[in-house]
Predict the structure.
Amino acid sequence: MRPQSGTPVVIGLSAVVVGMREGEAAVLTVKPHDDNGKVSALAGLPFGPFDPAQDRTFELALRAFVAEQTGFELGWVEQLYTFGDQGRDAPLADVGAGAARVVSVGYLALTPRAEGADTPDTAWMPWVRAFPWEDWRRGRPAAIDAVIAPGLKRWADEAGRGAAEARLQRARQLFALDGAPWKEERVLDRYELLYEAGLAPEAARDRALAEGRAAPEPARFDPALGEPMISDHRRILATGLGRLRAKLQYRPVAFELTPPEFTLSALQKLVEAISGVPLHKQNFRRALERTGLVEPLGRLEPDTGGRPAELYRYARERAAAGPPQGLNLPVLR
Amino acid sequence: MRPQSGTPVVIGLSAVVVGMREGEAAVLTVKPHDDNGKVSALAGLPFGPFDPAQDRTFELALRAFVAEQTGFELGWVEQLYTFGDQGRDAPLADVGAGAARVVSVGYLALTPRAEGADTPDTAWMPWVRAFPWEDWRRGRPAAIDAVIAPGLKRWADEAGRGAAEARLQRARQLFALDGAPWKEERVLDRYELLYEAGLAPEAARDRALAEGRAAPEPARFDPALGEPMISDHRRILATGLGRLRAKLQYRPVAFELTPPEFTLSALQKLVEAISGVPLHKQNFRRALERTGLVEPLGRLEPDTGGRPAELYRYARERAAAGPPQGLNLPVLR
DNA sequence: TCAAAAGTGTTATCCTTACACCCATGT
DNA sequence: ACATGGGTGTAAGGATAACACTTTTGA
């Protein structure tokens, strides 16, 4: 196997680190600065280079640079996806003399300890800030019908004949328009649709860069369309959240985000924060019980504001044994 | 982002191409030959380099070189995993002067047309040949208890105290020993276990290479332990099949493997060939019916050997609409 | 007429969904 | 006593798993 050309490849690693923070699901972000110390206005995911001469595996390299960059030790980690397409502002990097192609390998990491103060360079961002339309916990977000649907409609109308209907169809399916069901795990497809439709500010930026124009002033937080991120990081984040939401349904990943002891309400809040949909209390508990993955400790948590709640722990030993696993989501209403 | 060293990275692409062939699920393999035309004794997956200067996306590069190498046009394609660990015989490649680190991006591809004659260089291999223990269609494979379980037992006994029990536990869960349930989608974990336990010939080879010894004569097909492949290709294959089996249960991927018209029995045979478990006829049909993904054509297929069967087609339009999707597997017995 | 495969009916059981109500604490 | 969450009971409907039987062809 020989490379056909002199263009070198650089492999970058990025991490979607998810944890609970003050009852909200949050991701670890960094404010990148260039070599002159100028700090970017937009946040990014922790990312770093993979050194082919030194790093034995991607995962070890990832753990090392996240610890170095953010002071954070990762627990549960899994590979997400490898991004190599041109034109999504995963652009050229300088390497000695000349430009290199950057390929970035994204990872998803979960941690039960998302505490610790934010520093000037790192912060935990409630991920709903990046994707406000993904939060259905208090019902269908108004912005979907007020802003997103009209925007997509406009975009569909720009297309010729057959294409317009196909675009509308996609919009309907993904954003649950006209009574289509909401599929919470399709986070990436929704983001991609908004990107294609030009509703994500990253799209305009990438187009400008591709055409050699100056990138427009980065847009800031928009309550309907969310907060953009540097490079293709919001896309990687969407990939991670989609994967996490899907995984919730067939693997006991929720427990990678809990402290060692927790109440069932806290667990439910957690699953709701990740999946973005409200759950039916009793059915959630019954489903949990059926899995046998959780064990009451016989002790109470008094700080609930009402009746004290029983504390539970995750019975990890039983996770491997039982036939099925993973929670399912008895959606409320 | 700057590379820390002078070691270059080369990106390779590999494809797990799955199709039905004479009623069996098969993967497309190539017999690699070196520059002198000497052909390897072992089969490999189609693989090729990614050219950072020419190729816009991984997927386009993949389609191009698979077509070139095997004459095959791919249909449905999805990225599997990116393999970059050292020591799994994804070893160094020659690049001009000096060695490069090879990172390989694996893809899964499905095709309804696995016909066409084998050539000297390419062949469709029934994938059960690589993983005989994965075929439970005619009941629990005898080799599991006769060969694999004792082998794993020996391996566990080599470990000290606590470790031995952990190894046994893993073996029990993955290979359904002592009444543990069989989880058909854990193809990769099972292969990895066999590799760690030294029951896959690839392990001895990789150890020899890592220690600078000559690689042992490649072992050939073993009816219990399967047929090894070059490099880490059997691992990539296991990743692909595990993914495919899992996906069967929540996405309508089975139809990417069918011809445009098919009988329900043929579809059932197909799902059984992929998942490796026997299915309950009527419950399979009922489940299918519920999804509404399939439409009778009102015509019959006479060549069944018994009563003619009704022909169906996949109603792709309906796939996007309906709430759930994917078949589930009503396992027989 | 018989083998071979296609195709159906029926039931018990379990899971899911949904409704409504009771319990224990702090103020 | 009442507000605030924690924590049940129960019943309808639907999905699953398992049973065995009928139908239609070719040899």
Summary: The longest strand of chain A covers residues 9-21. The mean pLDDT of chain A is 88. The radius of gyration of chain A is 21 Å. The longest helix of chain A spans residues 142-158.
